[in-house]
Design goal:
Layout (H helix, E strand, L loop, with lengths): L2 H39 L4 H8 L16 H26 L6 H26 L16 H11 L5 H25 L6 H19 L6 H17 L4 H9 L11 H25 L8 H6 L2 H28 L10 H10 L5 H10 L3 H31 L21
């Protein structure tokens, strides 16, 4: 390979490497925010925690005013930035990245599908009927920041292929989560406002078609789309993902629009938006017997089991099926043992799981029980995943051969 070819390959991999690095750092900041929220909510100053996030903060003019509190603005306003960045990453991978080729995308698609369907099924079986059943989407999502941080802590013990596998599965996982939120966790739709949101998205396409390169017209159109989505009943954060999917992934007049936006906004999302979201939503007061209540709650167990067992078995079994049938191929250097370890780590479902919890339950008691399940399931997934990956790193049986299939009984791949 020539030096020019090597340089081109390095440039092509830069966005993914930058994304992973930002997620690792973001995971550290996110953990600090969670610890701060829990400490604050369980301290003598706990009253100030809830008062702060319940502070009324109406914004707008006249009939267009949105009357909401500070937590609401974080959850529905700032989190639109998070979903915009997620949408940018999905768009890049679909157009120029690992998911652009159907055969290459088959493995992460099948793994992510298994890691979504089985957690939802286990949750539904354990939670039973009633109001608790509305949270079936809670254990479906992987928190890529926390998961990437766990793999970073293990360093060279984890092969690069394992990180690639996790990131690819998480991207498809995010796409499914966005769809689930838009379809199943939106309020009754207002057709008029929905049409306005659609017109705003069409305006963005029109600006692209006219070759408009200034930023402010797109910002104005984006804010209008967000507001219309908010009023329409579709969760407003979905507007961020929709706008991202309209962003050109290929150069426009020599400008890397998507890469520039991702480079500028990803640190804002990872280091500011997501930690603020955690600070606003992770503050559980555990002093009033909540842990005891959660221990006897089918809802808390449904979330925890969905994250730990559902993600592990769903991703691992779907990956095994894809490899054995020749439908997908593992990245080099990763074997069966690493797949199970990464599948466990993927059970760390935090940011989007908390997000769906607030959409699923109006009752504070159910929200608190579900959050305990998220904490327990995510912690167990992270700890067990680390143990498995550390053990397999020292085991020759956990090392994949040149084909990347160590430990997998497989059929001949289809040609």
């Amino acid at each position: 390979m020539t030096k020019l070819a090597v340089a081109a390959q390095v440039r092509a991999e830069d966005p993914r490497r930058d994304f992973a690095q930002a997620e690792v750092i973001g995971g550290i900041v996110l953990l600090a925010a969670v610890i701060l929220a829990l400490a604050w909510a369980n301290s003598p100053l706990s009253g100030s925690y809830e008062r702060l996030w319940a502070t009324p903060l109406p914004l707008g003019v006249g009939p267009l005013t949105i009357d909401a509190d500070l937590r609401h603005w974080v959850n529905e306003g700032l989190m639109a930035v998070f979903f915009f960045v997620v949408g940018l990453e999905i768009k890049r991978e679909l157009v120029t990245g690992a998911l652009r080729d159907a055969r290459a995308a088959a493995l992460p698609a099948m793994a992510a599908a298994g890691g979504v369907l089985l957690p939802a099924l286990l949750f539904t079986v354990i939670a039973g009927g009633g109001a608790a059943s509305a949270g079936w989407g809670i254990p479906m999502a992987t928190d890529v920041a926390f998961a990437a941080g766990v793999l970073a802590v293990l360093g060279s013990r984890v092969p690069a292929g394992a990180r690639l596998f996790l990131l690819s599965v998480a991207i498809v996982d995010d796409l499914i989560a966005i769809t689930v939120i838009a379809v199943f966790y939106s309020a009754a739709l207002a057709p008029g406002w929905l049409a306005v949101a659609g017109a705003g998205l069409a305006a963005v396409l029109g600006l692209r078609g006219l070759g408009v390169s200034r930023t402010w017209p797109y910002v104005v159109a984006g804010v209008a789309v967000w507001y219309a989505a908010y009023r329409s009943g579709v969760h407003a954060t979905i507007a961020g993902a929709a706008l991202a999917l309209l962003t050109p992934a290929r150069p426009v007049r020599g400008h890397q629009v998507l890469a520039t936006l991702e480079r500028r906004l990803h640190p804002v999302s990872a280091l500011l938006v997501v930690p603020l979201f955690a600070l606003a939503n992770a503050g559980l007061d555990l002093r009033g017997g909540l842990l005891g209540q959660a221990a006897g709650s089918r809802l808390a167990w449904a979330v925890a089991v969905g994250l730990l067992a559902g993600k592990t078995l769903g991703i691992g079994a779907a990956t095994l099926a894809a490899v054995r049938t020749g439908a997908g191929r593992l990245p080099p250097g990763i074997g069966a043992a690493q797949v199970w370890g990464v599948s466990m780590v993927a059970g760390i479902g935090f940011t989007v799981s908390l997000f769906i919890t607030d959409l699923a339950y109006p009752a504070a008691a159910l929200v608190d029980q579900a959050k305990v399940g998220i904490f327990v399931g995510s912690l167990a997934s992270g700890v067990l995943g680390v143990i498995v990956l550390r053990v397999t790193a020292r085991s020759p049986a956990g090392t994949a051969g040149p084909s990347g299939y160590a430990g997998w009984p497989r059929r001949s791949a289809r040609r």
